[in-house]
Design a protein that fits this description.
Blueprint lengths: L12 E4 L6 H16 L8 E5 L5 H14 L4 E4 L5 H10 L4 E5 L8 E7 L8 H10 L12 H6 L3 E4 L2 H11 L2 H5 L4 E5 L8 H5 L6 E4 L22 H9 L4 E5 L6 E4 L5 E2 L1 H15 L6 E4 L5 H9 L3 E4 L3 H11 L3 E3 L5 E3 L8 H15 L3 H12 L3 E8 L5 H11 L3 E2 L2 E7 L4 E5 L4 E6 L5 E8 L5 H12 L3
Parallel strand pairs: 2-3, 2-4, 3-6, 7-8, 7-9, 12-13, 12-14
Antiparallel strand pairs: 1-5, 4-5, 9-10, 10-11, 14-15, 16-21, 17-18, 18-19, 19-20, 20-21
């Protein structure tokens, strides 16, 4: 049986546990990353290793740490599950050269994953990932490692807790006092993941009331198909929030690097609107200026905000492997993507769901507005915008056939609106005459194709998506 090739997708490598994702493949992947780092650095600075709450994640993390130690590196290993943002920040805070995080983020419960971060705490650019892939050995029989017990005894591996240093960083970035003293009733859905307990901890002792749902560790993720902060996975949290008469529902994905929002009426606020709100918050409420970095799958509201506040907007391919390098290049104020991941200046060029949630709460407090009123304020600036997405299974071997079909289709109109441009930077984005768009993109982490759209006309959403499914050959 051929050794399965390890390929990094939109954010790291992911696979089905006990199928392609095994202790052997984790050792191989770690060895490829260790070789990559040894070509760039000496071993005088540590590497951070963390993990999420998925099945056996702590064991896979220990395996990665053993291989790094065997290659001469010192390892800072989180003793418990830690949010991805704390791992990314710890790289900078601990003067480390890189990080490995064992997490499959929002994937189904059957999966686990392997994320890598650079010395800035951000995603590694695509060319670096290709190099890492090329250095991954085909077998694990000659991979050096130091067993965990021995490495701990010699301090090659040390357990550490990133909590206190990360909390200090948050306090520097956002004024917590008004949030603590706000008379708000907030529900939190950490989706059985790493974000559990963090918001209550941050606002402990304040007047604000925080109640959690799905806060324990449960790797099968009951009441949702996966820990991804979009419908229908958020439905149970929204219902609980409405029953609790909460002022807002804060939602984290499984590793807490993504943030979702439910309003005071138990209605989901889609992630494009949240990105628009966070950019508006930075520009208007905080009166800060700087470039905006967005992926091509996210909202055109950012282009309108860029024009209004005279800041440049840069569009990249999908994934923080494109967003993070661009944020560093242009010293961006905010960067983000359609999946609900947002990063901010003064922090690390990496998604931080916890910080994004605090900024949104601060916006509610500063403007004395509910989430639905915040959306209305945003729309008063940029006009109404409507978004939706359909994910459909697609075997990997069928991709080239469907890509050819899309190119051959050459639609003149979509949803009855004239097509003005086709962008093939990352997928197939049809720009429409009214400023809307349709994107067809094959996932970099799962065997699915995604069809997305944004439009200023709510009545056109379904017809645009239907045309997208026809173009890709799924309807």
């Amino acid at each position: 049986m051929a050794t399965p090739k390890i390929v990094f997708g939109t954010d790291g490598w992911r696979g089905r546990i006990a199928d392609t994702y095994t202790f052997s493949s984790v050792r191989r992947c770690t060895q490829g990353f260790a070789k990559y780092l040894l070509e760039k650095y000496d071993t005088s600075r540590p590497i951070v290793v963390g993990h999420d709450r998925r099945f056996a994640s702590e064991n896979f993390a220990s395996t990665a740490a053993e291989v790094l130690a065997g290659n001469g590196f010192s390892v800072l290993l989180t003793e418990g599950a830690s949010p991805t943002p704390t791992i990314s920040y710890s790289v900078v805070d601990q003067d480390a050269i890189a990080a490995i995080n064992i997490t499959a983020s929002h994937n189904p419960p059957s999966d686990n994953g392997f994320k890598v971060r650079d010395e800035h705490g951000g995603a590694i650019a695509p060319e670096g990932l290709k190099t890492i892939e090329s250095l991954i050995p085909d077998a694990d029989d000659e991979i050096p490692l130091i067993p965990l017990k021995k490495a701990l005894a010699t301090d090659k591996i040390q357990y550490f807790d990133p909590t206190d240093r990360y909390l200090l960083q948050l306090a520097k970035l956002v004024d917590l006092e008004p949030i603590l003293n706000a008379q708000l009733n907030i529900m939190v859905d950490p989706m059985w993941g790493n974000g559990s307990g963090w918001l209550p901890k941050i606002v402990e002792g304040g007047r604000i009331m925080v109640t959690e749902i799905h806060q324990s560790r449960n790797p099968i993720f009951p009441e949702m198909t996966r820990p991804e902060p979009i419908p229908p996975n958020v439905d149970a949290g929204l219902a609980a929030s409405l029953a609790n008469k909460a002022d807002a529902l804060v939602i984290f994905d499984g590793d807490a690097d993504r943030f979702g929002l439910g309003d005071e009426n138990g209605v989901f606020v889609d992630q494009l609107r949240v990105f628009g709100l966070l950019a508006y918050y930075m520009l208007e409420v905080r009166n800060e200026r700087g470039p905006i970095v967005k992926t091509l799958s996210t909202t055109s509201m950012l282009d309108k905000l860029g024009d209004l506040y005279n800041v440049p907007v840069h569009e990249t391919g999908v994934g923080f492997k494109y967003v993070a390098p661009k944020m560093l290049e242009v010293d961006a104020l905010i960067g983000g993507e359609e999946s609900g991941g947002y990063a901010f200046k003064g922090h690390v060029p990496e998604r931080d769901g916890i910080l994004a949630a605090l900024y949104l709460l601060d916006m509610m407090v500063k403007l004395e507005a509910s989430p639905s009123n915040l959306v209305r304020l945003l729309f008063e600036k940029v006009g109404d915008h409507f978004y939706d997405r359909i994910d459909s299974p697609l075997p990997p071997g069928d991709r080239s056939e469907h890509e050819k079909r899309i190119l051959d289709y050459d639609p003149k109109t979509i949803g009855g609106v004239k097509v003005t441009q086709l962008v093939t930077q990352d997928g197939f984005k049809f720009v429409l005459e009214d400023g809307g768009w349709l994107l067809i993109r094959f996932s970099g982490t799962e065997p699915i194709v995604r069809v997305y759209c944004e439009t200023t006309n709510q009545d056109l959403v379904q017809s645009i998506l239907d045309d997208g499914l026809r173009i890709v050959g799924l309807k």
